[in-house]
Amino acid sequence: MGSRVLEGTPRFAFATDRGRYELWVPAKGLVLERITGHATGDLVRSMTVDLDKLLAEASPISFFDDFEEVESYESGARQHITTWTKENWAMVRAVHVLVRSRAVATAVSVANVALGGAMRSYTERARFEAAFKLELDQALAPPRKA
Predict the structure, then answer these.
(1) Confidence bin at 6 (pLDDT 50/70/90)
(2) Helix axes 102-114 and 75-87, enclosed angle (nearest 10)
(3) What pLDDT score was predicted for residue 2?
């Protein structure tokens, strides 16, 4: 993330000549994804293959999508991730998305409508990181005694 809330080697990563994605799992049920550059269909398909592996390990999952550095995307990439999310919605706890580009914000808005308005979108990194930190703290907190 921009201020490096999360450091270290990503669990999964994939790059094309135009873009890259990285995926971290800082706690069970919590995923941080970062896409930079141009989001192609191949990049997003690779990402969802890795997400399928994570869903097989634990669900539900809260997703934090750092798309602040996405410069452009193929419509097929947006369609694929929206379809994947709809198909796996029962295993999704929450989706938080950080955007900067107006085009990416529009794509996220369209996807959010398709998902019934359940996504949370951010244009300010500090708010996105605060939501991520809160979720991470909750995921790492020891269970309460009854």
Answers:
(1) low
(2) 30
(3) 47
Please, which residues bridge with residue 92 across strands? 61
Tokens standing for residue 100: 């900067």
Structure confidence at residue 101 (pLDDT): 84
- Helix, strand, coil shares of the chain, percent, nearest 5, are 40, 35, 25
Domain boundaries, the chain: 12-140
Torsion angles phi and psi, residue 74, rounded to 5: -90, 140
Q: CB–CB of 14/21 below 8 Å?
A: yes
pLDDT at 65: 94
Q: Which CATH number fits domain 12-140: 3.30.2310.20, 3.30.750.24, 3.40.50.800, 3.40.50.150?
A: 3.30.750.24
In the Cβ-directed half-sphere of 12, how many Cα atoms lie within 13 Å? 20
Please write the tens of the pLDDT for every residue from 66-125: 999 999 888 888 889 888 988 998 999 889 999 998 878 787 787 778 777 778 889 999
